[in-house]
Amino acid sequence: MGEVFQRIAASLLCATLFCLTTVKTLGAMQQSGYKNGVFLRWLERRENMLFNRLCVLCLCLALSSTITALCFSFLGVRAALLISALPFVALLFLYLYSERKRALKVPLVKTGRFKRLFVFYFFLVLCLSYFAIALLGFLSVWNGSALYALIAYAPFALLVPCLPFVLCLANLITGVFENARNRKFVKRAGQVLDEKKIIRVGIVGSYGKTSVKNILKTVLSEKYAVLATPESYNTPIGIAKTVGLAEFESAEIFIAEMGARKEGDIAELCQLVKPDFAIFTGVCEQHIQTFGTPQNVFKEKSEILKSGAFVVCGEGLKTRVEEAFEKEYIDEAVGFAGLAQVKDLQLLPTETKFVLRLGEEEISVSTRLLGQAAAENIALACYLAHECLGLSVEEIAGGLEKIEPAPHRLQLIESGGAYILDDGYNCNALGAREALLALGRFTGGKCVVTPGIVECGVLEEEINGELGKQIANAGLDKVVLVGETLVGAVKAGYIEAGGDMQKLVVVKTLGEAKEELVGWLGAGDCVLFLNDLPDVI
């Protein structure tokens, strides 16, 4: 009986340390939307060293415990095995300490689902630990060799590199319950939306959704009580959570950002939200990895045109939309806005100025939002506010004065006289081009830090090669490429376009990239952080 309790205690200790060792892996699973396929693609990336680190840890655990047991074998098998547990535990603590420096770029959120997954994951690891210890102990007795008994527990370390796959198993099992629970949650939110008299606005597109949403909310707040999905909440669950907020009760307008990673996502969101109005920002090669072709991306995003909503589109979409749908339908259901409403555009380093035309009236706009895309986003939001929701020119002008840049979306930060362009959440080719143009407007030293552009599928190499060419032609003073997988294509494009190799630095981590800037970045200089993506996309 005492041996059973010892095994339970050892299993509890090991399971606790193993789960703490991989807690950030659960953060990556959370960023994957709790989808095992997305998580495993992240795990197998060349630049992702998690599995390699776990394998090295496994080897160190096995060797240290075995060598220690052999060294103290003169004390007897039981004493030697107990002593060999000390380096085993010490190495796990050392690994935990080293992992503190590897913070997730998007911190994990301790939601109910996260906690439930963690508990079940711990339970699975605990069961596997107990089974492994019991099995190895049985084999030790069965073998009968004192030497074998001393090294019998070394294979226990093999559990460590298996932990990400145990997490996938835990997620698969709990997902049966969670998915059913989520469907009920979303269905209930849909019923709440259906019962409330509220104006609903959907924001769809490959890029610019969050920026347009923030602009539209700020402008509409001059006249209405507005609730918008926070941050990048653009899934059914995110929308359902927003509907559950206390602010929903008093809201007159609900703005829902709508994202898509696979076919059918936009149709599902439209069925949930049932938008009265929508803004279709545009499409690009983003998410080719899951959609396959740019045509499929457009086809999915344009589902918004079938929702029954009046849709405001950017000028760049006009031809594609007209080609995809009957002209009579377009006249009734779609309005076109964008740069056609903008004149006297001035793109300055720290602000954007232009004149916005709404009907017969004009507004002089000066905003901290940067670039031509900012002007088009403002035009889209203001067109909808004025033409569809009845805001006066004066109300719109008042709202425009209050617009703040969305975090990590070409956000300008000044620090000690130096400038930082934080475009960390940009992950498309059009946005990258706009960001490099914004960087080029500064007169001091100019530097870009980027890992390249992801989720472009078969076009990934081509798009990143083109990015390298644009960087080479941007007249920059320093170029820092981060990572291993994508930067090869960026570097190749940079070299092909005649980029100065003395200005180019390739580093493995963002931390190393920041170290490269120490001593270089001074007053008047500007560094662009382009597409500093979350750990999992």
The separation of the N and C termini measures: 49 Å
Please indicate the percent range of residues in DSSP E strands (runs of 2 or more): 5-15%
> Which term fits the overall shape?
globular
Unreliable sequence segments: none
- Total beta strands: 15
Q: Mean pLDDT, as a whole number?
A: 84
Instruction: Please estimate the helix content.
Output: 40-55%
CATH architecture of the largest domain: 3-Layer(aba) Sandwich
Q: What is the CATH level 1 assignment of the largest domain?
A: Alpha Beta
Q: CATH homologous superfamily of the largest domain - what is it?
A: Mur-like, catalytic domain
Count of individual helical segments: 21
Structure class: alpha/beta
Main pleated-sheet profile: 6 strands, parallel
Folded structure, characterized:
This protein is α/β, with parallel strands linked by helices. The chain has three domains: 178 residues, no CATH class; 205 residues, UDP-N-acetylmuramoyl-L-alanine:D-glutamate ligase; 120 residues, Mur ligase, C-terminal domain (Protein-Tyrosine Phosphatase, Chain A, Alpha-Beta Complex), CATH 3.90.190.20. It is built from 21 helices and 15 strands. Strands 2-3-1-4-5-6 form a six-stranded parallel sheet, sandwiched between helices. A six-stranded mixed sheet has the order 10-11-15-12-13-14. A three-stranded antiparallel sheet has the order 7-8-9, with helices on one face. Strand 10 and strand 11 form a beta hairpin. Helix 1 crosses helix 6. The two termini are 49 Å apart. The mean pLDDT is 84.
